[in-house]
Amino acid sequence: MVKVFIFNGSLNRNSTTDYLIKNFLNKLKQNSDIELSTYYLKNKEISNCIGCSRCFQNKECVLDDKDCFDKVRAEMLDSDIIIIGTPIYANNVTGYCKTFIDRISSWCHIFKLIGKRGVIITTTSNSGLDEVNNYLYKVMSYLGLADIEVISHQLNKDNINRTLDEIDYISSKLINNIKNNEKLKFSKLSEESFERLKEFYLSENANINEKKYWEETGMITCESLDKIIYERR
Ligand SMILES: Cc1cc2nc3c(=O)[nH]c(=O)nc-3n(C[C@H](O)[C@H](O)[C@H](O)COP(=O)(O)O)c2cc1C
Description:
Elements: E1 2-8, H1 16-30, E2 36-41, H2 64-67, H3 69-77, E3 81-87, H4 95-102, E4 117-124, H5 129-143, E5 146-154, H6 160-179, H7 188-201, H8 208-216, H9 225-232
The structure holds flavin mononucleotide (FMN).
């Protein structure tokens, strides 16, 4: 069973991003003889982070009582593939997408999503794709996601059939990697962040709760993310 978590940053009922995501999921199903289960997060109320920093101290988020975002985090932790889709608004991710990312940003200090694969799906009329794809690639890398793939569509320029072909290609590659138990590939950004954070958690200034997590998971003594995965195999 392969579990897929999807977040769509568009609140538009007639969403192009949604259309591409659904195509991607259909292709995943077609290209796979493995059973797939999906959790699709869209149009759900997500509260804006209030900056209390409790999450960085490994404490419960005070907003979870209000919007049950703890259930969303649990779904993500239980998944094999994480898809983040968003339209471009004012050359950036949508506010809704940023709100979602802020609520999991403490995970960027501890590579909480290590062991999972990431897919970025972005749509725009003309502009902003590079900035947004680079940003989401960085966020996914810092979360510990591997084999990150990017699917983008520019409404005023790209041929939709070509984008759908790209979706077909990437979905079958992803499924083959999973089926063949291919080793996860981390981005350079992931490994650089690992080196930087490890140095910090070995220092006097380290946040005690995050340091504890690094110690308990054994990351503190590992050379790289690549080695962690190698040892876990
Ligand atoms: C508020 C808003 C801001 C937008 N900003 C940009 C932009 O900066 N550059 C651009 O090329 N398209 C922009 N667009 C167009 C959307 O990115 C494009 O229509 C996208 O495919 C919408 O995705 P959706 O249908 O999934 O919501 C904007 C659209 C809206 C509603």
